[in-house]
Automatic annotation (TrEMBL):
Belongs to the 4-toluene sulfonate uptake permease (TSUP) (TC 2.A.102) family. The chain crosses the membrane at residues 12-39, 80-106, 112-131, 171-204, 216-233, 240-259, 271-289. Its main location: membrane. The keyword Ribonucleoprotein does not apply. It is a multi-pass membrane protein. It is found in: Cell membrane; Membrane. GO terms for cellular component: plasma membrane. The lineage of its organism: Bacteria, Pseudomonadati, Pseudomonadota, Alphaproteobacteria, Hyphomicrobiales. It comes from Xanthobacter autotrophicus (strain ATCC BAA-1158 / Py2). Pfam families: TauE. This is Probable membrane transporter protein. Keywords: Cell membrane, Membrane, Transmembrane, Transmembrane helix.
Amino acid sequence: MTIYLPIAELPIAIFTVFAMGLAVGFISGMFGVGGGFLMTPLLIFTGVPPAVAVASVSPYMAASSFSGALSYWRKGMMDLTLAGVLLSGGLAGTAAGVMLFLWLRVIGQVDLAIRISYALLLGTIGTLMLVESLKALARMRAGQPPTVRRPGTRAWFMRLPLKMRFRRSRIYVSALPVIGIGFIIGLLGAVLGVGGGFILVPALIYLLRVPTQTSVGTSLVLTLVTMAAATVLHAEANGTVDAVLAFVLMIGGTMGAQFGARTGQTLKAEHLRLLLGILVLSVAVRVAVDLVSRPADTFAVTREAQP
């Protein structure tokens, strides 16, 4: 059955969109990631304009992170003070990202900017994850204990002013790097349609020494609020949020996440990281190939963005 996407301005098979939401939801549940970095390229591959894909994934990300955030909040595995400081930078980054997105649309370079950014971001992260997971598997086969990376206690950013004590996370650090991290995540979320959890969680763990479970719960709060804000801002400033597309994706993603979470619990952490690294790197390669390959149509007719 085919439906017409009013904002994307193209017909698409509803079961194809549902299957994408189901697959990415499964992957999100299995690996514990938001899935926006996979959903946006998949939509672009199926013909959805990159601007619409980024904006329409934002409500999907907000909805998918809501249930997870609620679960962590009920279990007490969330630092609301840390989340509030992160959000002070995250909301500013989201607003800046939407304005940057609008400027790129006005000059007609938003599609190219999104594709290049995805190729660089996913390529870097995928390579790092793949190398780290292969080293971990090699150590495991050799019978060596896993290495634990502990950040230094005298890192330069810990000596910055405006120090705050985050009791739930058991850390005492400057609020400035926390705000900066939130700003970067909000900016990436607005421009690329990613929740940023795959960047934020390692940053909280390795840079600020936040406990892992608290990092995941706090990350979900930031994703929920920034993606909800990005949805409203994109709809108001750019008019690129396709509600029909987002609704179908949310249904499939919610169902797939339940099955993915059960599957992920049966796999070892090293194998999960290896599979995720291969997946991320594969998407980066596909985006890069599309950038340099000859398009099927040598020209396209699009609507002019209103400044």
